């Protein structure tokens, strides 16, 4: 596990050394020996924020320190910390600190500070996480997809589901939620069903083949949103760092939704993570 922690810390140290430069998620994730897709999911579970939020918070902290010390002009701070104009920098600065960059230069200005992160995984008593590892043959899904940015996906993906549920003419059951990496910064999220070749592909939908192989399957028991989020956090922050004999495979993952039970506490849904043997 220490090697895994060291790699993840190396990625954070890399961000810290390059906060005044354009940061590439592939290079960041590479320091942890992970794909951008998995890196961003693990980072969110471990740190409680997206990579983009972390970088912005650190940049705003350093910019405020320089402005308060009178070491830099507002326009220079904007350029140094990656903003195209003083106006966009000022808006972001005020959202973070509650004061404008000019006010930050005044004596007694109250500013926020966000310290660099240091990864430390402490084992504090057992938390049961049920899972099984199984081999599945290739299968094909059919669904509608939408592209999301990793920084805003936690808010936007539920809206996607709400829109779908409100569509009285929907032709999908919503058996799967499929995440597929596209370019490191963005991913496609599918609302999908198993594809039945003898049926026409519904309008606005397309198909995707999911490769066969090993999968870790995690049951999520209880009310839908809470149980999925709880298990998802445990997978990335507790289970994965202690995983032995296997590593992540493929830049995709699946949510498998069963028909709802009569009582929310009796619901059982699943998260599937593709694996490969080391």
Name the structural class.
alpha+beta
The main pleated sheet reads as:
9 strands, antiparallel
Instruction: List low-pLDDT spans.
Output: none
Give, in order, the helices and strands.
HHHHHHHEEHEEEEHEEE
Q: With helices defined by DSSP (H or I, 4 residues minimum), what is the helix count? A: 9
Helix content: 25-40%
Radius of gyration: 22 Å
Classified in CATH, the superfamily of the largest domain is: Regulatory factor, effector binding domain
Average pLDDT confidence is 88
Strand content: 15-25%
How many DSSP-defined strands?
9
CATH topology of the largest domain: Multidrug-efflux Transporter 1 Regulator Bmrr, Chain A
Q: Class of the largest domain, according to the CATH hierarchy? A: Alpha Beta
Distance between the termini: 15 Å
CA-based shape: globular
Number of domains: 2
* CATH A-level architecture of the largest domain: Alpha-Beta Barrel
Question: What key attributes describe this structure?
Answer:
278 residues, alpha+beta, Arc Repressor Mutant, subunit A, Multidrug-efflux Transporter 1 Regulator Bmrr, Chain A, 2 domains, 9 helices, globular
Short description:
This protein is of the alpha+beta class.
Secondary structure elements and pairings:
Layout: H1 2-17, H2 25-31, H3 36-47, H4 51-68, H5 74-80, H6 86-97, H7 101-104, E1 132-136, E2 139-149, H8 153-166, E3 176-181, E4 186-194, E5 206-210, E6 213-221, H9 224-239, E7 246-248, E8 252-256, E9 268-277
Antiparallel strand pairs: 1-6, 2-4, 2-5, 3-4, 3-8, 6-9, 7-9, 8-9
